[in-house]
Amino acid sequence: MKTVPALAMMLAMMPAGHAAGAHFGFEGWFGTYNRAEVRAGALMFDDDCASCHAIGLQTSAGAAMSLFEAQHQNGPALMYRLLRGHIALPIAHPVLAPVPAYDIATYLAWTADPTRDQRKRFGAMAILFLIAFGAVGYFAFGTRTDR
Amino acid sequence: MKRASARVGWLEARLPVAAWYRAGWRDAPVPRNLTLVFSAGMMLAVALAVITLSGIWLGLAYVPAPGAAALSIARYTHEVPFGWLVFDLHRDGVTMLFGVVYLGLVRGMFYGSYRGGRELAWVLEIARFAVFLGLGFFGFAMSGGPGAQIAMVEMARHIAAVPLAGPVVARDFLGGPGIGATSIAHMAMTHIAIGFLVLLIAMLGYLTSRLAPPAHPDGVGVADARDLVAQSEYAGQIFAAFVIFALILAVIVTLAPGLGYPAASATPPWYLMIFDGLGRAGRTPGGGVALGVAALALLLALPWLDRGRVASRRYRPVYATFVALFALNAALLGVAAASGWTIVMVAATIWLFLHFLVVTPLVTLLETPRPVPERLR
């Protein structure tokens, strides 16, 4: 349990960035989660990680992983580098191959922000509506005849 | 007269809302030269409505207890349909509010909107700003994460450093000598109570501003009645301001939710960074409080520190340059506080106080203003 604050502190001090080069499509403006990757990551997490790391929102237990990527800058890239062993951890931890590391990082991005795709879909609709609304208003106010 | 009263409806005869709307809003005389930034006040009302409504809905899901606060909001955003939208309308709505508030303050300083009978309106604007800052802090503290708890303890130390009442208030602030079972409830209740109080302050400020001589890009007051138009002439401009406001908010919620809120750290949100910088430049908790309060007091005292004969930047370009410098310097102070550049932070703090105490009285007194035309430009 004592390692968790130490780990959190170490992670907070690390420079952010995509140094390892892992690129996550869902982070882009129009990108969405790849369902197959999320599912593969979930299966692997249940098989190989769940014995030590709990999934869920409860953070007082200290080890719940669901929100990890939301609580760190560039969370998915950071998780990928952690799983790949690019970052030295204070405790011994298995190093994963690129594809499992990528899928688990994707799955944990989904647990951290499961509504990301819905947000982009509805946000795009709202933005398009506002642009159309603004255009109609511009025309309407530009051709006002009551003054 | 009788015919006119016969035409109004039953409710209108008893509560003349439509007449108030016409006299106080649609046909209200306003200067004819207002620019888009003068719609900032109305956008502030929009932001307040968004924040108040989303805040009420968030409050229905929020559990004010240590360990449970952050979890209850995480549950709400993850598991309740469109909970994320309500949450982001609240935190990103606050970003929009402070954007509009800072814009309004810089505009007021630029055009001298605090002078010529508008002093009380300015005092209320600064009071409202100070309450917004407090609200921002309590909102950040009640989120209950590790960073918020550090900030609460830090704030309690600052409060305890205030002479006489400080230690007692600090205990009441946390609900005990340290973070305890009711600390988060203290943050939440204060946030909610002040949140509704600020609506009252904002309304009072609006009334005071409306009753004072109008502010506009050319200064304060309108000498010639031909320079006044009905506010309905600005419908298009207000609509444009609203669409721009809504678009920026929609883009933030969609593509950069939580913009300006550092993820899981003790760094407060962007809109508190100037005062975080002042607090840390004060070196000790007592010094930090003193600097923060002094900065607000000096901003409030601007109508009396300004010794010039004209208000608007248009007719005193030298002072206008210093106001622009002041705004840039304040932004730099916030950036330096967020980045931990101690020397820049201290230098920016010194310049901030020099601006109020030396630059403003001297430059406004010594600068020879350009001639102000009789009619509005």
- Radius of gyration of chain B from CA coordinates: 23 Å
Looking at the overall shape, the CATH architecture of the largest domain in chain A is Orthogonal Bundle
CATH architecture annotation name of chain B: Up-down Bundle
Q: How many DSSP E strands of chain A?
A: 0
Number of domains of chain B: 1
What does this structure look like?
- The complex is a heterodimer of chains A (147) and B (377).
- Chain A is mainly α and 147 residues long.
- Chain A contains five helices and no strands.
- Chain A folds into two domains: 24-114, Cytochrome c-like domain (Cytochrome Bc1 Complex, Chain D, domain 2), CATH 1.10.760; 115-147.
- Chain A has helices at residues 3-13, 35-49, 75-84, 98-112, 116-142.
- Mean pLDDT of chain A is 82; it is low at 8-20.
- Chain B has a single domain (34-366), classed as Cytochrome Bc1 Complex, Chain C.
- Chain B is 68% helix and 3% strand.
- Chain B contains 16 helices and four strands.
- Chain B has helices spanning 2-7, 10-14, 17-26, 40-61, 69-79, 83-111, 119-142, 146-160, 166-174, 183-211, 235-255, 273-281, 285-300, 302-305, 317-339, 342-366; strands spanning 29-31, 215-216, 219-220, 228-230.
